Amino acid sequence: MTALTLSTSGAATLRADALVVGVAKGAGSKSGDLVVAPGAEAVDKAFDGKLAAVLETLGASGAEGEVTKLPAPSGFKAPVVVAVGLGPAPAKGETYDAEALRRAAGSAARALKGAKKAGFALPTESAEDAGAVGEGALLGAYAFTAYQGGEDKVAPKSAASGRNAVKLPLGEVALLGAKPRDKAFKAAVERALSVTEEINRARDLINTPANDLYPESFAAVATAAGKEHGIKVQVLDEKALVKGGYGGLLGVGQGSTHGPRLVKLAYTHPKAEKTVALVGKGITYDSGGISLKPAGHNETMKCDMSGAAAVLATVVSAARLGLRINVTGWLALAENMPSGNATRPGDVLRMYSGKTVEVLNTDAEGRLVLADALTRASEEKPDAIVDVATLTGAMVLALGNRTFAVMSNDDAFRTSIHEIAGEVGEASWPMPLLADLRKGMDSPTADIANMGERMGGGLVAGLFLKEFVGEGIAWAHLDIAGPAFHEGAPYGYTPKGGTGSSVRTLVRLVERTAAGDLG
User: What is the pLDDT of residue 151?
Assistant: First the structure.
């Protein structure tokens, strides 16, 4: 993992491989001019106040994520200056947006892959700024290299010894210009380190191929994390699921040689006044089952457990941060495969709740495993339940690849989650649960079918889940099918592959609930 420190060194005296500064597009009457951001004063002074002019000559525009490298001024210990674009400069009297800082730091960290240490002299006027820069840098430095390079994997700054050699991520991020002795700054950096390490754990899980990550091995990872951080973990295996009547999990998992699991993680605090339950869809591989996915749609289906990975990351983050709240995580783990034992379209499953479900499409499996977990979570009567899932392609069509949907049985709760997501820099959008869509799931054979109308399919899935939430419990459903797995080129702090979508939103939700800021 990349280290994160608050440095007492100045920009000129820091011994590092590179020094990162920020530049932006000018505002007001000189909107076309390049602006040097706060934090870069020492570098600008060493260039006789002409750093912006030099960078413009090199083609820099200050556009978000743009990276320009140039030799450091004489006398600086770091040999290279990395100027990263922050986008439009803030208006007079305003400061840089936290998300702009995150993205800039992430772009710079990605550009410094293979380096041992870099100083980040980006704007850090507040503890929040320092936390944002730290988060962005650590998330941007992430790389999944577990299956690359073999013995030729190289340490930072080492020469590659073979054609498959892999550069490791930036080794250390040193934040300059912050207040290393200030409690608020220290707390912000410690929080950034804890949360990003867990997001990167989630990314590792999402990126791990399904031949190595299946329900049993995922449960083992959760058990080990719980032991490390004082979280109580309970794993229900196939025998326990049969005894308990978890028909959804069993029905989805019965076509695979890797049996399903339901994992409960319980973080408790002796002074907690609230309890939040988090439920994650954990389909470690989704072939579609008998309703097999078409060609071209199977290759990334190792990511269908992103919701469970997000829940694990959030519960562990709450424990690491010592939050005064009880947080229970439920990981609904199964592998959806076609075989002679697989559930068939037309089969009827008896769920943990006692309701029966006619399975019209075995590729609508996520809602089945979530339904069992939602019912079980509701039995403990938490103050709120949030489920997270890569649930529907319909929601990707509706909102694209970078925005997740928020549905809820409580409008105020839905609004709060949407606002929290914006606060931490995650794109979300509130979606309705339209009552008229419920009729499409009526079944002549069972209590409900797992499919309804095709149009509005993402909302139909939400309505299905709502049926399994305990009465009187505030509940929200996050459909992260779009942003959970990024197939394009990296940008900002977002890598190719697993992203860890929704973890920052969930952690902030838990923090605000613990502080009494939510009802």
Answer: 57
